[in-house]
Structures are given as C-alpha cells and as structure tokens.
Amino acid sequence: MLSKKRIAAILILFFSFNFFGQQDSTTVKEKLVVQGGVYKPLAPAKAAFYSAIFPGMGQIYNRKYWKAPIVWAALATPTYFFLANNREYNRFRTAYKLRKTGFQDEFTDDLGVVSVSLETLEKAQEQLRENRDLSLMWGTILYVLQIVEASVNAHLLQFNTDDNLSFQPTFIPDPIMFDAPKIGFTLKYTF
C-alpha cells in the first residue's frame, strides 16, 4: 500500500501539469506566422465563401491555381450529363404523351409503322430520369466537396511547416562500443 506522502506527491505532480498547460493567447498569435504574412483566422471562411459563389474561386484565393481547372472539369462533367439526359428524357416523354393521346410522334413512321414500343418509351423515361437525377446528385456532391476542399486547404496553409518540424533520422555512433552498432530512436522537438 502506498504511503500518504507518495500519494500526495503523485497528486501534486498530476495537478501541477495543469498550471503550465495553457499559454497566453497573445503570444500564440505572434508565433503563428504564415509564409509571407501573418495568421489570418478568416481565410478559411473567405475561401469557402468564394468557392460557394463561383466554383474554383476558393482554390484561386488559396493560390492553388492548378486546382481550379480540375474543379471546373469535375463540375462540368455532371452538368453535361444532366443536360444530355434531361434533353433525351423530354424527347421520350413528349413521344410517350403524343402516342398516348393518339397523335404521331417522332418514333412513328408516316405509314404508321412504330419503331419504338410504348413499353420501351416508358422504360427509357425511367432510365433517363434516374440518370438525370444521379447526375444532379453527383454535381451537388462535387460542388460541396470543392467548397470543403478550399476551406480545409486554407486551414492547412496556415500551419507552420519549417524544417525544424520535420523528421530526420540520424545515426550516432557509440564511442565506447564501436564494434557493436546500436539502433535507436530519438524524438526532438522545441517550441
């Protein structure tokens, strides 16, 4: 059983760490320096806002110019498929409505020969509507993802990435036991 002095010492050590746990907020802001400028707490919000207004603009605001064409291509693809599927859906929908009312549609010949059945028109409408809705869903997902990417990138740009923070393995020979090599791991960090 531990003595009262040991328990008291452990409790004092445990609670003394909390006294040194917090730092003054003014000194933290002075230490946070971005390459070529100071810490900007509203930069992620601006990047997200710009991306929401015009896709790719947040990436341009973050100075990641190469990402803007990728965003535009990613959003242009579902937009193209949405428009193409919607155009075809309306075409088959119009043909279906005309056939149901007894008029000639684009799939009926002048002699009255039907090249596409009524069932095929219904199935084509269902498939094209599903494809159109999927294109809209993917376009919305990509739109939201590019906003999130711009915001996260703006957050990450403000982190300190000095060489002092990097991991560099070094081999230190032991002068006493030179013949028997040893392998070790040392983690060194400074504030």
What is the element layout, followed by pairings?
Blueprint: H1 4-16, H2 25-31, E1 33-34, E2 37-38, H3 43-53, H4 57-61, H5 67-101, H6 118-157
Antiparallel strand pairs: 1-2
Helix pairs in contact: 3-6, 5-6
Structure in a nutshell:
This protein is mostly helical and 191 residues long.
What features would you highlight for this structure?
mainly alpha; DUF5683 domain-containing protein; two-stranded antiparallel sheet; signal; 191 residues; 6 helices
Largest sheet features: 2 strands, antiparallel
Spatial order of the strands forming the largest sheet = 1-2
Report the structural category. Answer: mainly alpha
Number of strands: 2
> Roughly what percent helix?
55-70%
Give me the number of helical elements. 6
Low-confidence runs (pLDDT<50, min 5 residues)?
24-35
Taking all Cα atoms into account, the compactness measure Rg is 33 Å
Written as H for each helix and E for each strand, in order along the chain, the element string is HHEEHHHH
Q: In whole angstroms, how far apart are the ends? A: 40 Å
pLDDT averaged over residues: 80
Principal-axis shape equals elongated
Assembly type of the chains comes to single chain
Q: Strand content of the residues, in percent?
A: under 5%
Describe the structure.
It is elongated and about 105 Å long. 13% of the residues are buried. Mean pLDDT is 80; it is low at 24-35. β1 (33-34) and β2 form a beta hairpin. The longest helix is centred in the C-terminal third of the chain and has 40 residues, at 118-157. Strands 1-2 form a two-stranded antiparallel sheet. The chain contains six helices and two strands, in the order ααββαααα. α3 (43-53) packs antiparallel against α6 (118-157). The protein has a domain at 33-160. The protein has 191 residues and is mainly alpha-helical. This is DUF5683 domain-containing protein. Residues 41-191 form the DUF5683 domain.
